[in-house]
Design brief:
The protein is mainly α. The chain contains 30 helices and two strands. The chain is globular. It starts with 11 loop residues before the first helix and ends with a helix.
Length: 829
């Protein structure tokens, strides 16, 4: 990044004109003239120093500022016996002067940074040299690195003349000729890099293509060559159209752009996270549907005679008519499915079918499909988290990002009026976020303000944690009460109607959803009382408090299902098929959570907007609570992952819920919510969401499912693992039977023993995933440090340029001082 200070005219890069498109000879002659004139005066120290920098290119350690130690760099910058303070003051004073000498102005006006944006001829001359160099590289010549420095040929030896005296038209003609001789990829890249406006680039491209067509038409090409050329063009055009069509098929592309332009990156991250969860559930639905649901639907088990009729309440409770369907664990058979079964009804295998038909072992398929789903999901999550770490945790200085957004963010391919308006809104919102972040860095607080704020934060956390603990205790005791009531009603066989019994099962989901709805309002009010200076910090604090609530609630519910319900399976007929009952509970929680989300959207956003507009007569709309809505998504996805074992079709329910939730939330945000009063940029929000989805959510669901399969006894009357003590033993027994039937499959038994039964494999796999995440974070941290060092070198390079210009100015002033003294003496005489 920081180039060496070199004024050698014989340098290859200077000869080729790759760094300066202007007349470098005038620039370096100015330096040489000033140094030569100064060397004839009494104080030659400054001139000797500049000559040493010019004529001693072998001393790389002295020439390269990046490798100087601080003390050496300081001595090199001073260059005289004067103190550093005097030299620094003189350098600053001379830089602040408005009047420069003519020689210094000439040098400054000839610098590449001053001429590149002003002289079109200089640009064409520079890129003519670059095209000539690219053309030479295509020729099979020996590399210049193979020659010594003294034996390296000059660029003029290749027949390339860098003549800056030619007119702009001749330079343009030579540039077009060189562009014509380049490949299409190099030609497009060079045209993109040229600092010209779009019309001039189009003109150069048009002229180049015209000359190319004339050359092709003048040459005697055969018919096959013309046919090949047009076929390639047609295929390329078709490929570009196909890519454009695939890009237009991206899900929710335009709605996401509208949200980003109006509300910023914080609200956009919620909808992107919802889209990610939708893809996860689509993958799970495809896997479970292909290997479990479809085979069992093709060969259904024998139907029970006392099947209940559909009443409509099943849509909310998941029981009744849905109890004995493909939705739950208890419906799936515990034997091998054969294609020779009569009427496509699954039944125990018959002797005449064993060798003549295809078979499908349902228990093995159920066991390995659930395991495969969790394993692939874990890999996708770890990969997404690593990728998100690399994209989000990078160094973005607000000043540099502001310059990039102002000068480089507009897309000139956008010509549609609506797209132009959308793009301008998006850029304006991003600029507000960057300015807000830069402003927040300059806020300074006194010690008393920090103490008061610390006390307020402590009280807020005590209140939030206390409220969370109280609500979790209420859920714990209420779930225990409902469990005891269900045991009593099943034992005493009370005469309550079936609909009333089904409706009573909704009490616990309603209580949990009500707590999940009301407690985040308390968290939001507490955060408002704490008065955080940074909106992003406020969002992260709210996210942490909602995370504590959701994790605590899910922990109590998992204890209720896996300890109380599973432990009562042998003593009560209501829980004979406890896996299906847990699946029904998870379905109820998903549906009731969706209903409460709709109610929160209706009463919390729509009615508040109507009340503010019509009653208060103020344009004061509610803001979008990112933390609460994101944790609701993670809560629902955790329920879906828990339900993979107990309800294989639960991902389909989650897909439908997410689709409806996207359109409802999108409409509510655009109609009822307002943009944040202080725009803020949340660069790591998506990474934090994926991390929370991986560790508390997916890891907790995986532990619960693994504990169920390894430790809890299976139901004896339903499911694919009936008649076995645990699910893992059922899988092992089926593999042993399969190996007995076909001895060539002995490797399955060994794989099951070492990969499934051995917990060391799971431990090693989890360790590998954690190591991958750790190394990815270390790589990103190293990249951040490298970027910081490169930025520091850029700053040092700027200081070096200021230093050289200041010393040139001081040399010129000291040269003019004796002449003024002689003039004043002559006038005095």
């Amino acid at each position: 990044m920081a180039h060496n200070v070199n004024f050698d005219l014989s340098h290859p890069r200077v000869e080729a004109g790759l760094e300066s498109p202007a007349d470098e000879e005038g620039v370096h002659d100015s330096f040489s003239q000033l140094i030569a004139e100064e060397s004839q005066k009494e104080g030659p120290s400054d001139a000797i120093e500049l000559q040493y920098q010019q004529r001693n290119p072998e001393d790389k350690d002295r020439d390269n500022v990046a490798y100087l130690s601080p003390s050496e760099n300081r001595r090199w910058r001073i260059g005289s016996d004067k103190t550093g303070e005097e030299d620094k003051g003189r350098q600053t004073d001379s830089l602040l002067k408005d009047s420069w000498s003519s020689a210094t102005l000439k040098i400054l006006s000839s610098m590449p940074s001053r001429t590149i944006g002003r002289s079109r001829g200089a640009i064409i001359s520079q890129y003519y040299n670059r095209t000539a160099e690219l053309r030479r590289r295509t020729q099979r010549r020996a590399s210049i690195k193979d020659f010594s420095r003294s034996a390296r040929p000059s660029i003029r030896g290749y027949g390339v003349e860098v003549d800056t005296t030619d007119s702009a038209e001749k330079k343009q003609e030579r540039l077009i000729q060189n562009l014509q001789n380049l490949s299409a990829v190099d030609r497009v890249r060079l045209l993109k890099e040229m600092p010209l406006n779009l019309s001039e680039k189009k003109s150069l491209r048009r002229l180049t293509l015209q000359m190319t067509k004339q050359t092709r038409s003048s040459s005697n090409l055969r018919c096959c060559s013309y046919l090949k050329f047009h076929i390639i063009l047609a295929l390329r055009h078709s490929w570009y159209n196909c890519l454009s069509f695939l890009h237009s098929l991206h899900l929710w592309q335009m709605p996401l752009k509208r949200v980003s332009g109006r509300f910023g990156s914080g609200v956009l991250s919620y909808f992107l996270f919802l889209k990610t969860l939708l893809f996860f559930n689509m993958f799970l639905f495809l896997v479970l549907g292909s290997f479990l649901v479809v085979p069992q639907a093709v060969y259904p088990p024998e139907q029970l005679e006392n099947r209940k009729s559909f009443t409509g309440l099943e849509l909310f409770t998941g029981g009744g008519y849905f109890a004995n369907t493909l939705l739950y664990y208890g419906y799936y058979s515990n034997h091998t499915l054969h294609s020779c079964s009569k009427n496509n009804i699954s039944s125990p295998p018959k002797p005449e079918c064993d060798s003549k038909s295809l078979s499908y072992n349902m228990p093995l398929a159920y066991f390995f499909t659930i395991g495969l789903s969790f394993f692939v999901t874990c890999i996708i999550l770890v990969y997404s988290m690593s990728k998100s770490f690399g994209q989000s945790f990078r160094i973005d200085k607000s000043n540099g990002m502001l310059a990039m957004k102002v000068f480089c963010s507009w897309d000139f391919k956008v010509i549609k009026r609506s797209s132009v308006r959308l793009l301008s809104e998006n850029i304006r919102t991003q600029l507000k976020e960057l300015l807000g972040e830069a402003h927040h860095r300059h806020i300074r607080s006194t010690i008393s303000d920090k103490l008061v704020r610390l006390v307020m934060h402590g009280l807020g956390w005590i209140l939030c944690i206390g409220a969370t603990a109280g609500c979790v205790a209420v859920i714990y005791y209420f779930s225990d009460y409902m469990h005891k009531e269900q045991l009593k009603s099943s034992q005493n066989d009370s005469g309550d109607p079936e609909l009333l019994k089904e409706a009573s099962l909704l009490a616990l989901p309603v209580l949990v959803s009500f707590i999940n709805l009301m407690l985040p309002i308390l968290f939001q009010f507490t955060a408002w009382m704490e008065k955080y200076n940074s909106p992003s910090l406020r969002t992260f604090v709210s996210l942490s408090r909602n995370l504590i609530l959701k994790v605590s609630v899910l922990g109590v519910l998992c204890f209720h299902w896996l300890k109380r319900v599973a432990g009562s399976a042998d003593n009560n007929k209501a829980f004979k098929c406890w896996e299906s009952f847990v699946g029904q509970e998870l379905y109820r929680f998903l549906i009731i959570d969706f209903i409460f989300t709709l109610l929160a959207t209706l009463f919390g956003e729509l009615l508040w907007r109507s009340f503010s507009d019509k009653v208060l007569k103020r344009n004061r709309r509610p803001g979008f609570d990112i933390a609460k809505n994101v944790l609701d998504l993670i809560y629902g996805q955790t329920l879906a992952w828990l339900g993979l074992l107990f309800a294989p079709l639960l991902p389909a329910v989650q897909i439908l819920k997410l689709l409806l939730l996207f359109y409802i939330k999108m409409s509510s945000v655009m109609m009822n919510c307002q943009a944040p009063s202080r725009a803020y940029r949340v660069s790591q929000m998506t990474t934090i969401f994926i991390t929370l989805l991986c560790f508390p959510s997916f890891l907790g669901a995986s532990v619960c499912v693994t504990y169920t399969m390894w430790r809890l006894p299976s139901s004896e009357s339903c499911g694919p693992f009936r008649g076995n003590k645990t699910m893992i033993q059922a899988g092992k027994q089926r593999i042993v039977e399969l190996v007995k039937e076909n001895p060539n499959l002995y490797f399955l038994a060994e794989a099951h023993t070492y990969l499934v039964e051995n917990p060391l494999v799971l431990f090693v796999g989890a360790t590998i995933f954690l190591i991958v995440i750790y190394f990815q974070s270390q790589v990103v941290d190293g990249q951040r440090k490298i970027i910081a060092l490169l930025q520091e070198q850029i700053e040092n390079e700027g200081e070096d340029k200021k230093f050289l210009i200041t010393r040139l100015q001081s040399v010129h002033e000291r040269k003019r001082t004796p002449a003024r003294n002689l003039t004043s003496q002559d006038s005095g005489c």
